[in-house]
Amino acid sequence: MALTEVYWDHHIPLPKLAPAQAKVTVALVALLCFINSYDGEFVFDDSEAIVNNKDLRPATPLNNIWSNDFWGSNLSSNSSHKSYRPLTVLTFRLNYLVAGGLHPVGFHVLNIVLHAVVSALMNDVFAILIGGLDHDEQGRTLNHAPKTSLLAAIFFAAHPIHTESGVNAAFDVLLICNVNVYELSQRLLLRKNPLDVNEVLRSGLLTRLALMALGGLSMLYARWRIMGTGPPAFTEVDNPASFEENVFLRIVNYNYYYSLNAWLLLCPWWLCFDWSMGCVPLIKSATDWRMVWLLLLWCVLIGLTSQALCSQDSQRRRTLTLGLVLLVVPFLPACNIFFRVGFVIAERVLYLSSAGFCLLLAFALGHCFHRWFRYRRLLCVLVLALLCVHVVRCALRSHQWRSEQSLFISALSVCPLNAKVHYNVGKNLADRGNSSAAVSYYREAVRLHPTYVHAMNNLGNILKEKNELVEAEQLLSKAVSIQPDFAAAWMNLGIVQNSLQKFEEAEQSYWNAIRFRRKYPDCYYNLGRLYADQNRHIDALNAWRNATVLKPDHSLAWNNMVILLDNTGNLGQAELIGREALKLLPNDHTIMFSLANVLGKLQKYKESEGFFLHALRINPNAASCHGNLAVLYHRWGKLELAKKHYELSLKLDPEAPGTRDNYNMLRRKLDQLKRSAP
């Protein structure tokens, strides 16, 4: 254990702060970097991990958290990604309860505060890793590297890689059991002074390592039992290198991915929310110039490892060893060695690794100040500039994460070959009502990835709305030929074929959609529309009834049943269906409107009036509702009220069909009544 200050520490141009002051400083830096994103939206994966995750809802049993994955799917399911993070989901659920719903501010503020707290605590962690674990006479932990630990913690707090929001054994070996790595390596590699087994046993090292190994294996076994034996199902676009048949090229590309991760730690300027789908082209031969980067990475790692093992400087050995362990070990689950992962690069997995990088960076800067003391001012300027760049980059990246629009657009310059980036930009534009602009991005996504069925489906939908039905049919047909179980594409193909009056093909497409997704209320609804167009009224009613069974709040299906029964003269049945629907949807003004029409034809004028007025209280600017209420009053003999609502309807929609004729008829009748009055 260290008993003196680390020799390079006093050369670092930072004030020697008290422990509390250092923590506050680091926390403030973390807040400064990320506070501008506190009021951002839910973006990207938040929609599945939070917004659509039923495990966050109070109505969902709490036990589900322990058997479901991060996205709310059962871990035993073949569709599960096996990302098991129950404690994270539990914090989401608590946030939901405290905030009273899905309010992004609460989630973002909690994340920012957590990062600030972690960064502040990292000051103590770095102090122990660099200067060793030591205490004064009163039992307080001593910091033998106050400036180096502060510098490392500040870099950790301000590292832009954090925007996307095995170590214990090394700590135990080096600091608790106080193993001399240099002496151990000399004995094992050079066979100097053979290792004394009794000495090792007396140190308690083997016992402690055995206990940690047993604990680790127990956790792995528990997780294996919870997750099931089946591995997650990933596709080639998620992680292309893992599907490379040539073993040599697969290993080369894995190592290239490692070098890219290292580059993101070293220069976190090019950051992207998703690195799949062609963002990183595969290395196909040993002559690819990118081979230089992975060779450089291994040269640096080997150099650092040799210094960590063979340096005669004990402080250097400890700092480098723990820095490398903290850099490499947390990254191992994401390195494709033990199992295939579902991503090329994921910035979130570098959170702990960045701590090791910051420790190594602070160590390197400390040595620079120690060795080149005469250039102290220049080094101070460079370090300050580096910190400022990190803070600015953090603030910029946080701002980009405030909304999906800015996040997705920021990725276009980083990964222009990524089809998913273009797809997400297009989807965001379409969701905001700019379908025309979305078309070009969807087309580019399909061009970059010709089998991208989701892009084809969304592009086909937009072309359908623009009445470009032939091309829409071609795209959707291609999508289902590539992925035959794509239920949504089958349904959309059916809608297009129905519009093209290809009724038999449309019906078959709808049934294909239902075959691949049995509980598909929207498909039953569209199937009902097809049957209604063909005057197959019973089939239409059955299809819409199926839709309401699967989704009791399917307003369109309920309303269409009432309208069809009304149009076919089945007024009594239409009334029953309308009342049944309003029990489930008591504030649905469209169903109130349809039921009011039925009641009016049944001469139940008072009830009909009540439903019309209730519907107008919910949607006061519905011209058709004013017009039909006027017709009701006209039949009922309440002519002044009829006149009032005819005028309101014409004011809202001067071209309302039939309303002006009815209004003119009423005016003639009122004029006749005035002339005949005594």
Description:
The protein is mainly α. The chain folds into 5 domains: 9-227, no CATH class; 241-373, no CATH class; 418-517, Alpha Horseshoe (Serine Threonine Protein Phosphatase 5, Tetratricopeptide repeat), CATH 1.25.40.10; 519-620, Serine Threonine Protein Phosphatase 5, Tetratricopeptide repeat (Alpha Horseshoe), CATH 1.25.40; 621-677, no CATH class. It contains 31 helices and no strands. Helix 21 packs antiparallel against helix 22 (503-516) and helix 27 runs antiparallel to helix 28 (605-618). The radius of gyration is 34 Å and the shape is elongated. Residues 167-177 have low confidence and may be disordered. It is an enzyme of class 2 (transferase). One of its GO terms (biological process) is endoplasmic reticulum unfolded protein response.
